[in-house]
Amino acid sequence: MKKTDWQYLIDTLLFLCIVGIVFIGFSMGLVIPKGPTAPESAKYFLGLHRHQWGNIHFYLSIAFTVLVIIHLVFSWKWIKGKSRQIFKKGWRSILILTALASILVLTLFWAFYPRIPGVYEDHGVRAGAKAKQRILAKEGFPVHKEEYTEPQEQQVQGKEEEEHEHEPKLTRGVMAEDQSGILITGRMTFYDIQEETGIPARKIIDELGLPESTPLDENMGRLRRRYAFAIQDVRDAVADLMKKK
Questions:
Q1: pLDDT reading at 147 higher than 50
Q2: How far apart are CA 210 and CA 193, in angstroms?
Q3: Helix, strand, coil distribution of the chain in percent, nearest 5
């Protein structure tokens, strides 16, 4: 193959990479929800999870970087000649400044991006292994550090029964265990509790100290892992609110 053929191939691959990078970037920024407040089922797009799209974005970025370097090597004579023609004796300084400008752009974004304390406190991993150990210990279950690593996404989805395995057995069938007189289990949502007790769901969330963005239509089994609270905390909060009522 001639040098021009290689240049054509490299430019074509660069175009394909940048289209993929831009598509995934817009999808992750505008289409696929992020953070623990979004249901896991909503984080899938075209059959792939948000993290999987992120991996593809990373691999495309590596390929794009390698192709750019190869492109610069092939085009170096043209770049050098054109720089000399336009900038005369200062062409070397211009090329160095152009390279530094890429770093400057990132620095400007980093410097001027708003820094709001606590804005991402609910993002990232749901509760962490330590929080899960604390919850299970509070509910009277044995805790072993090696058993409570963060689950894979496929383990989280479609396992409704597993979300309620750690509930005390008595509370599944005996209302006397709940001071509020209402049977509250991991299957219930805040809307269900509101309907049962007449207490606004938002008041219960406030009593628990959960963020305002907490979903009201998602069951407790999922939410307690995400926000690191126990089902008993919900029962106690409801009991306190009913006393105040």
A1: no
A2: 16
A3: 65, 0, 30
User: Which residues make beta-bridge pairs with 49?
Assistant: 44
Spatial CB neighbours of 53, under 8 Å, sequence gap ≥ 6: 24, 27, 28, 32, 45
Q: Which are the contacts of 17, defined by CB distance < 8 A and separation ≥ 6? A: 60, 63, 64, 67
pLDDT at 34: 79
Beta carbons of 41 and 32 less than 8 angstroms apart: no
> 54 vs 26, 43, 48, 60, 219, CA distance in Å?
12, 12, 10, 10, 28
| pLDDT recorded at residue 168 | 44
Kind of pairing between the strands at 44-45 and 48-49? antiparallel
For residues 94 and 36, what is the distance between their CA atoms, to the nearest angstrom? Answer: 46
Residue spans of alpha helices (H) in 113-160? 128-138, 153-156
Plot region of 128 (φ>0 → left; ψ -120 to 50 → alpha; else → beta):
left
